[in-house]
Amino acid sequence: MNQFEKKMGKIIEVLLETDKYMTLEALSQQIGMSKRSIQNYIYKIEGWFSEIGLNEIKILKKQGYGIKLLVNNEDKSKLVKKLKIDNINIFEDMARRRLETLKALLFSNDELTIQFFADHFYVSRTAVLKDLEWISQWLSKYGLKLFKCQHRGIGIEGNELCRRNAIAGFFDIYKTNEKDVLTGFNCCGRLPEEKYTKLRSVYGKIDILNVCNIIEDAEKTFDFFLTDEYFLSIVTHLVIGIARLTTGKNVEDHFMPPDHEYTSLELKTSEYISSRLESEFNLKMPESERTYICIHLMSYNTFNHSDSAINYIPQKIELLAIKLIDCVDGQLGTTFATDKILFFGVISHLKTSLYRLEENIPIKTSAMEDFLKPTTEIVNAVSKAGALYEEVCNVKPDEEEIITLSLHFILSQKRNARKKKALLVCNNGIIAGFKLQKVLHESFLDMEIVDICSSLQLAYKAENEYDFIISTVALENCSKPVADLSHVPKSDYTKFLDEFMFSLM
Questions:
Q1: How far is Cα 7 from Cα 9, in angstroms, rounded to an integer?
Q2: Is the pLDDT of residue 300 over 60?
Q3: What distance in Å separates the CA atoms of residue 392 and residue 323, rounded to the nearest whole number?
Q4: Distances (CA, A) of 252 to 180, 234, 248, 255, 299
């Protein structure tokens, strides 16, 4: 299992050993992780309890005391069985996970991405890539292959007969009940069941599934992907169009925009779909109908014509980017892997930095030290991931490269953090309030102090402007949570507020 799972298991194990509250500081010292990382892991552990069906296990958070597990003896026994040698075993072994992945690809109608499988099985993206390699080899025996489009997900391509043979082969190797395997299988493809039923009730003579297949073939041929909403819309339009044309009705040509407004890709795709419809449904598609398909494709922004530079990414650069992000995630318990802006930012960076490293071209990173001080944890994690450069691309990163790469992760953290909004209540004067605001701003990057006021002014503040209150004076009858600093020494402000904000998660 990867480092992420090992650390999750270690935290759970420590919490299982005591029935008392443990502060983040105590957990941090015992496990050897920062408090911020533990907070991230705790959030993921709560989700994992739900994932494995132990919904009754709760992580209690109490301001000033810390956290503890609320678990009965029966669930505790079940949880202990899940923990083996400090690891979390989501599935019994690799083979089981690969079969579950294959099952999802064969039967699911949802968009399936590498990150989806990584999150679902609690494994690294690298592990998912290896699983997909095995699945690709297995599918090749049936004349099928995997296709993966950036931003769009993973699927299986091949003719229907080959797919059916593969499903039969799947049942031979998957030791389970057929009914369980087919749970959630939707015979009408990407169309919602209720929409498919409604179309069938109105246009029962038209083979709707055949229309769906034509659109999906167009997606593969011209390398685009329609979301379910857009897919439903264009299928509905085509079904109605087929019904209209078979009864001799047509769309008036003068309602159509001129052809020059469409790019060659939309026109070629429209021609492909129209020709297939003519062949499959024995009808003639007039020019107006072809143009109407172009309108659908353009309104969905089907083809991105503005960013051709990203279309080709060397495989080793993509693999290195995935491994770097996965490695940092594993150390910090964060969710960088879900940030597509980060992923393509790292790729763009690597395309030039690898050449610089190969040619030993230096860059200047002076005056960055102050900017990096609050984020040394990220820098350390990126530094540890640096060995992947040599493993994947046979180059060794220098200090400048580590610092520059760290900036991408720092920006991602700031971009995706939803800052908690705090109201600072201080009765010691405006200058004291501003000084405390400055201290808190430097200590808590994920918190924004929206205003400073006295306890007398508090009644006139709109409560929808802030999430909680930080007060240096005792307050009564507040509907929002209050971090009462009146009894806390100034030297302990940061520690107290860290525990308080964690209790709000």
A1: 5
A2: no
A3: 9
A4: 51, 19, 13, 6, 20
| pLDDT top residue among 97 and 490 | 490
Q: Bridge partners of 453?
A: 425
**Residue 454, exposed/middle/buried by CB under 10 A (0-12, 13-18, 19+)?**
middle
Helices and strands in the chain, H and E counts: 22, 10
Q: Which token pair is 483?
A: 């971090």
What is the pTM for the complete model shown? 0.43
**Separation CA 128–CA 322 (nearest Å):** 11
Q: Are 445 and 460 in contact (CB under 8 A)?
A: no
CA atoms lying within 13 Å on the CB side of residue 210: 12
Q: Is 137 helix (H, G, I), strand (E, B) or coil?
A: helix
User: What is d(CA 246, CA 28) in angstroms, rounded to the nearest whole number?
Assistant: 71
- For the chain, report the end-to-end CA distance as a whole number of angstroms: 27
pLDDT digit string, tens, across residues 67-102: 888 888 888 887 887 776 444 443 344 667 778 888
C-alpha closest to that of 45 among 81, 77, 84, 15: 15
